């Protein structure tokens, strides 16, 4: 073999200096970096966040938060194990715990992402196609944060879904129930206002009614928005008072917090959409169980009573997801414990009656088909919503029939915007790509308290100032956005 160092071709070429004076000037900003057709889960429209990025919340989440969350999940399962008496179930659950410990090892030693085992769930094909096409050879820290974090929750589900007796076990269920029962002040603040059917003043003219409806819309949308501040995955060490502060629902507090809504389309949503809607269909893509779900339901109740909607679809998760997301069990738990439970030992009889009155009405909505709870497998995948029309066309066509789709919370916002380093000033419509521009894309609202890096639809100067003066503002949950896209009416063509 020729010595590479002395071979003629290894000599550096002599330097040629080009004069480029007549070419167009260099640009420094290219937006978006990738056009929709070149975007894929490993290559979002702007550079992705990844676990190894120390500048991003991805790093703390993948490195510390996820192992802590998994450790608590193991503790919960051991508690259940200690309460079990049947030998076959005990042996079966012990294996689930061993699988969780293996997952912990994979996470802490940053293993490559393997395929999901076939546990008969409707999402296995979607997961494995995405892993095979885009994440082969990637590990927890260098895969995109959105995918790696979602993948961890799917692997956690697999620990149970391949068991015999514990397929639907929810390691976060105890915690979810617990926060709702610790939210009594805000729970009764709302139930005592909204238990009685909503009515306009007797002499009110149509104009008065519209004005009153606008005010209620403004305030209830904010109640629904700030209900998202109580997120179990972040509030592990919260005191009762901290929770109370986050949940204040009084008018004064709302006026104060409206200043913290950095991108605020509330008026636009009312003027162009909600005020014109009569007997429409509204969809909620839910986020957290317990108090946030309760706020969503209070809001949905008013949307029905005011005649704005006659059908509400609630989209939840099929299994335990990002700690506190709503599953069907959480949904039933909320309505039934409001109706029959004894969660609030210090509440007065009249407060408890208000809660039961509301629960009875909500259950009736369900029986009448005015409220529909759904759980499409796509919601528990690692795909961003840019992929919703192509990966879940049935779901897209279903959403296209809605008059308004409200996406709750931070994770939904991350998935709408592809969870990448989008400049803050990029308009919401651009940031959500096909969910705004695809044929049939429905009107979409994002109600989000900001708890992770990606922020769009916000004045760039304000975002830059906060980056400089208030480090941590992107993950504190102190700020929020209410962003709206009108969509692209027409026949869906996913
Ligand atoms: O319940 P939310 O509002 O979706 O928030 C979930 C939290 O978890 C994260 O996914 C990070 O783990 C962030 O999106 C956010 O901090």
Automatic annotation (TrEMBL):
Top-rank taxon: Eukaryota
Annotated catalysed reactions: beta-D-fructose 6-phosphate = dihydroxyacetone + D-glyceraldehyde 3-phosphate; beta-D-fructose 1-phosphate + H2O = D-fructose + phosphate
Protein name: Sugar phosphate phosphatase
Enzyme Commission designation: 3.1.3.-
Gene3D superfamilies with a match to the protein in the record: 1.20.930.60, Uncharacterised protein PF01937, DUF89, domain 3
Pfam families tied to this protein: ARMT1-like_dom (PF01937)
Record text about domains: Subfamily III proteins have a conserved RTxK motif about 40-50 residues from the C-terminus; the threonine may be replaced by serine or cysteine.
UniProt KW rRNA-binding keyword: no
Family: Belongs to the damage-control phosphatase family. Sugar phosphate phosphatase III subfamily.
Example GO BP: DNA damage response
Residues in Damage-control phosphatase ARMT1-like metal-binding domain copies: 61-465
Disordered as annotated region, ranges: 1-28
Cofactor (UniProt): Mn(2+); Ni(2+)
Alphabetical UniProt keywords: Hydrolase, Manganese, Metal-binding
GO CC field: nucleus
Gene Ontology terms, MF aspect: fructose 6-phosphate aldolase activity; fructose-1-phosphatase activity; inorganic diphosphate phosphatase activity; metal ion binding
Chain's role: Metal-dependent phosphatase that shows phosphatase activity against several substrates, including fructose-1-phosphate and fructose-6-phosphate. Its preference for fructose-1-phosphate, a strong glycating agent that causes DNA damage rather than a canonical yeast metabolite, suggests a damage-control function in hexose phosphate metabolism.
Regions of compositional bias (Polar residues) in chain numbering: 7-19
